[in-house]
Design a protein that fits this description.
With 421 residues, this protein is an alpha/beta fold. It has helices at 47-57, 71-80, 110-115, 118-122, 143-153, 214-225, 234-245, 274-283, 394-400, 413-420; strands at 13-18, 39-40, 44-45, 61-66, 91-96, 129-134, 138-139, 157-165, 173-177, 183-188, 202-213, 248-252, 268-269, 311-313, 315-316, 319-320, 322-324, 327-328, 333-335, 338-340, 343-344, 349-350, 355-361, 366-367, 372-378, 383-384, 389-390, 402-403, 409-411.
Amino acid sequence: MTDRHRQPLARDAMAYVLAGGRGSRLHEMTDVRAKPAVYFGGKSRIIDFALSNAINSGIRRVAVATQYKAHSLIRHLQRGWTFLRPERNESFDILPASQRISEFQWYEGTADAVFQNIDIIESYGPPEYIVILAGDHIYKMDYEIMLQQHVDSGADVTVACMEVPRREATGFGVMAVDETDRVTAFVEKPKDPPGIPGNPDYALASLGIYAFNTRFLIEQLRRDADDPNSSRDFGKDLIPYLVKHGHAQAHRFSTSCVRSSLEQQSYWRDVGTVDAYWEANIDLTDVVPELDLYDHGWPIWTYSELTPPAKFVHDVDGRRGVAVASLVSGDCIVSGSSIHRSLLFTGVRAHSYSMLDEAVILPGCHIGRGSRMRKVVVDRGVVIPDGLVVGDDPELDGRRFRRTDKGICLITQPMIDRLAG
């Protein structure tokens, strides 16, 4: 049977998104929300990328496991992702850690977050295949291509991976493979990552994306749950076990990464630090960014608020509402403010004589008159006082705000409140 006559495997697959992590390296940004719920790109949340990939790939059964400070995430999912219809054999389940196995047991690891909901998975048939996804990365990927490889190879598990320079692979789970990309070893954060056959300067880093036959995964989860030495984690326990005792296959992200005509390279980002988060958002202001959010062939679905258009007012010297090389979302008012290479989320108010340069401003912020902000991330709802200057004095910035080694300042409302005290 040729590829074009195949029945899409995604029609009989479930996407199971692991979205319970805090993301502690984002510091105060995740004090009130889980990392997958962090805002990205002007109007989206980080989790929208994994969910959009699933929908665009043809998967119509989705489950999201939540745990850490999940209210913001659950509210977003309820508002933006409940369009799937049971009468069309579609489903969307939000699965908070609810002590369903034991009144004392929350999700103990990524594998346990699936194990505790086996009964819900089985209630859908279960689907023939299940794709396990991390909900905290920025990328565009067609999971159908990965599922096709999984079936063709006869693997017990297929692990999505990305080629990275060996010296940069020490922070990932890394796979050693043979010439057929069968995984021969899986090691977490190795000091000396194994190279790729024929390309020894690069290593294969796991992306935390796994494809299984559902019945097989359920068997393995039950086996792992009975192991008292297991930490109940895919990367630490389940995948290494299957590498040793079964058939684990590597799937190279470059073969299923979705690119528009403007995207030259495969794009995948972990925005898990303040620096990485700032950089990925600011990169979107480039004339031709590495990530194309304007690709109508692979849209990033999200909760779309009903907002008025962005507005720019005042046109006199020194008080001109203008934005250059910037993304400005709906319900923003740029009132006599100068904005350069910045990203403004929904509902920002930038008042007269203020200046934003390489700034990521989250929803509902007010930028006070005469303030100057350079290389900042301003958390949701922050009111910047009139005349505040950030970005000119590193020592002063470091005392008042969270300043990274690369000079990016994260600003939250409690930090601003302490200035007045």
